[in-house]
Automatic annotation (TrEMBL):
It comes from the Bacteria. This is GMP synthase [glutamine-hydrolyzing]. It comes from Vasconcelosia minhoensis LEGE 07310. Keywords: ATP-binding, Glutamine amidotransferase, GMP biosynthesis, Ligase, Nucleotide-binding, Purine biosynthesis. NCBIfam families: guaA_Cterm, guaA_Nterm, PRK00074.1. ATP binds at residues 219-225. It is an enzyme of class 6 (ligase). It catalyses: XMP + L-glutamine + ATP + H2O = GMP + L-glutamate + AMP + diphosphate + 2 H(+). Homodimer. One of its GO terms (molecular function) is GMP synthase activity. Gene3D superfamilies: 3.30.300.10, 3.40.50.880, HUPs. Catalyzes the synthesis of GMP from XMP. Pathway: Purine metabolism; GMP biosynthesis; GMP from XMP (L-Gln route): step 1/1. Its EC number is 6.3.5.2.
Amino acid sequence: MLVILDFGSQYSELIARRIRETQVYSEVLSYRTSIEQLKQLNPKGIILSGGPNSVYDQKAPACDPEIWNLGIPVMGVCYGMQLMVQQLGGEVDRAERGEYGKASLRIDDPTDLLTNVEDGGTMWMSHADSVTRLPDGFELLAHTENTPCAAIADHERKFYGVQFHPEVVHSDDGIALIRNFVYHICDCEPTWTMETFVEEAIREIRAKVGSQRVLLALSGGVDSSTLAFLLHRAIGDQLTCMFIDQGFMRKYEPERLLEIFDHQFHIPVEYIDARDRFLEKMVGVTDPEEKRRRIGHEFIRVFEEGSANLGPFDYLAQGTLYPDVIESADTNVDPQTGERVAVKIKSHHNVGGLPKDLQFKLVEPLRKLFKDEVRNVGRSVGLPDEIVRRHPFPGPGLAIRIIGEVTKERLNILRDADFVVRDEINKSGLYHDFWQVFAVLLPVRSVGVMGDQRTYAYPVVLRLVSSEDGMTADWSRAPYDLLESISNRIVNEVEGVNRVVYDITSKPPGTIEWE
Ligand code: XMP
């Protein structure tokens, strides 16, 4: 395994993912991790991440300098390289000119770390400080126009530093560099595969759970579905899957879920029809956060009642993923004041959102995995592609796509419009070109004409977006023909809608959902 010590970079997680893509297990740990902990983990190498600080800031985070005596390879990235240089006796200074964005890498020593990295290729830079004097034992590997020390090495002790970010997609041969570090310098073997993960996870689940009973709240999303398949394989009917129908799912979705689980794969699901209860909670509510709060509360109540009726259970299975447990430094720290600057945009409700004080022990077999790894695990335990590759769908469902009050009538309108959108996208064969595709119902009405009749009905917003991870997104340049057929069908088939508009806002400044 490799360890990434996180100094607050927005890319630390990405470094871990890139390493795992080489089939080597990696973990992100705080830069404060003690030397004893590191020794216990016994990694084959350490990467020091970037970070928002200058090594000369008063509050600049630093790792224990004892890591230089562990006798294992270390690579510093950006801030990590500057810290390495400072701790080993070199010098870092504010550069005359910082370097941000793409830079052309000029290679001085094409061996070891830079094997198969093209001279003149692009690497992604983002720094104000620069290394001005190398510590004893270090040599220059590469430079750029504005950065004299872009890559450095102490070959003897296997310490490496890169000022650029090999982990981001804009860096041409970044992956080649990472592979050199992982395979040739740290001597790791590509043993981290989802098949071995599944075998190990099943062994661990059985050892932990024994003959006790496990409850799982199934949503139909990829995480809880993968979890259900994995647990069912491990402990069979000691697992109970509970599906709470809040009434905010898309057309035919609850039925399809039961069909797949119950009938196709013989994983029994306890269906709880809570549609009326949730709808009652929506009466008179228009504020998006209040909607989420009420849905979250009601979910917990229904869950508690359901588990009491079906129980008792010893364990609760949760689809916690690695990004939720990363022990990272705060990434939103103001480098001058040291204060957190995070701002809450939306309080996400999802089906895993249960309180911590429930009377269950937890089983969380996915907590080491990134989302794309969960999909691969899902595939390897036989989860059908329609769930593995399903677009994300928010926990509060259609309730946050109805702007204003959620009523039965408006839910039906949106559900029908949404069905047309998905149906047309499926028929077009372009489903996987999008991150999400959906309709939003507005609380205003506009005039139209159908036949010779005046209409006065709701507009629907069409939202088709592309994205890598949902953090940023762009509106999709979908073919006009597709937009036209969606619009025509909605206006013709969905009673109560007489207009379709297309949302052409990226995120930021918009968000993907309207609420
Ligand atoms: P936004 O609207 O914040 O959405 O740009 C980013 C991603 O998160 C999903 N989303 C949610 N998921 N509970 C969820 O489980 C929520 O309350 C929630 N709100 C937004 C959204 O669909 C998109 O994929």
